[in-house]
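INFO batch 0412 | record 1 of 1 | parsing
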Amino acid sequence: MFAFGKIRLFYDSVYDFTRKESIRNIEYMKHVSFFCCAAIALLSIFVFFASCARMSAPAGGPKDEAPPVPLKSKPLNYSTNFSADKILVQFDEFIVLKNVNQELLVSPPLPKKPDIKLRGKNLLIRINNQLKDSTTYNFNFYNALADLNENNPLSNFQFEFSTGPEFDSLYVGGVLSNAFDYKTEPSLFVMMYEQFNDSIPRTQIPDYVAKTDAEGHFFITNLKNKPYYIFGLRDMNNNMKFDLPNEGIAFLDSAFSPGFKEITVIDTLKLLDFISPDLQDTVYRDSVVQYQELVTTIGDIRLFMFIEDYATQYFRQVYRPEREQLIFAFNLPVDENFKLTPLENVSNKDWFVKEPLLKNDSLIFWIKDSALFNSDSLFFSLSYTMKDSNQLDFVRTDTILAFFQPKEEASKSKAEQKKGGRFNLNVFANKEEETEVDSTPPPSELTFISNAKGQFDLNKPVELLARYPIANVQKEHIVFNKIVDDSLRSAVKFEIKNPEFKLRNYLLHFKVEEDEKYELIVNKGAFTDIYNNTNDSIKYTFTTRGTEYYSNIQMHIMGVVEPSLIQLMDEKELVLEERKIWSDTTLTYDFLQPKKYIFKLFFDLNQNDKWDTGNLKEMRQPEPVFYFPQEVETKGNWDMEYEWELFPVGPPKLKKDKKTSQGAASQPKFGTSSGRQ
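INFO prediction complete | emitting tokens
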């Protein structure tokens, strides 16, 4: 009993101790729980206020991409008998204005721009003008409106009203593009006048106006049932008037009436002519019928913009890329009154050689007098024809400084160096290993650059381009061979010619054979330039391509009603070849490298071998331009044939290169092609 009592006492004491410790632990956990709950509550409050302070879309919700929506307005949109002086439009959310002075366009135009303000979700328009009677007005905001939070634009929001009892509801549309290359621009004005003379677009704002989109499309709304005169304008000073020389203009030749026009439709009907008794056979005959039909005139207007060519002559700048070379640049070709006189003492009247150019708006002179070209600064008297304020000719004389700076090439842009200088006139100096022009007197040795290297095209002559104008050529010192093998050469007959307008170029024409190796040896002294420099011995080697590398194009051209120039261009519209035609014809282009080509044609109405712009005062449109409606991508060893019926169409949109088979890639959309075997 004693032992059992001790054991019981021991367990009771342990239990009591354990119970007290548990109570203490529970009290401790209560305190810990209290502090944790308090901390969590404080953190929640902090996060709540932080999230309230930050403007953001609710997590997980879709992004707002909807533009603001107009809910109501006072007066109502499309009201008649309008007489208010202000308009209030309420939207479903807050909005912002972007370039409203440039974007908002009112048609018919108002003498004074309306005041545009925002009040919360409301747009307030104050009209500060006396409105015309019985006229429908259109307020087009184009891209001026967007919502506040996500900047979603509300494009082409329009508010319309009529000051009379009825709405003018006719409208027209079309495309405005550049006359020469069919390029389009956004925000060009298209203007309509109820009356016309050649001074109205220059002095009066239009009766109706709209703007083009990026593709050149335009729509003019709320027109009356009457004829209008239509113009396009690239407005440089934003006054809706054709009053600056660099502004583009377009016009229709005659008045245009919006609405509908009546056309004659010719149709063919099949009439039942005979039925057999057993109903086994029927016979029909064709019957031609004519009837009148009304068609809309909406969208069929084509306007072609041009800049008038009435610029007056002026001198641009003088360039001296080498000591011996002078380049005088004008904005227009010079006439016979041009005269250049050095203001230094010259020992010889023949102190220069003039290098002819196809365009006479830049003139190149090579100085022969060493006393002149050795001087860094040269002064000249320059005389040329200009026009006075009354457009009468007079001869102007200027004193010009031509300064030579040896390090000039280093300050030019890399692009200009690659292009051969400002006017592509100093081609030789830049092609010769991209070296700087030497500042010393002419070298004692004449050097060339040539295309006689690497892979040589079958339809090209060998070209030699000298650094300075050539004075004498000795053909007997030039050797042209076909390389049969390492030890055997076969002489090739050739002709050497100096092209017209070229002083430094010589072409060697020969009968080119495919897949052959040639060598051209220009022995010492074969060429002499105007500074009495002669060439050292030069040797060129090249290999001709095989015919399978090339393709041929046969183009059947229809609809040629005027003398025309047709241009073969690369995909950047660089003219590679130009031909003149007088009527419908078929042209063959052979030895074409595998690449993409564009065909362009324009009527040469005055037969001056160049495209001419228009003139508003003379009501003369620019010469019509046509593009073949697809790019032509050639492949090696392919013959391609196309039919081209002329109609106004812009340049083709060039396709991106795709990895397709040769046959599939070579199938033209408007013609046929086949491989040569």
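INFO post-check: Residues 1-37, 45-57, 417-441, 656-677 have pLDDT under 50 and may be disordered.
INFO record closed
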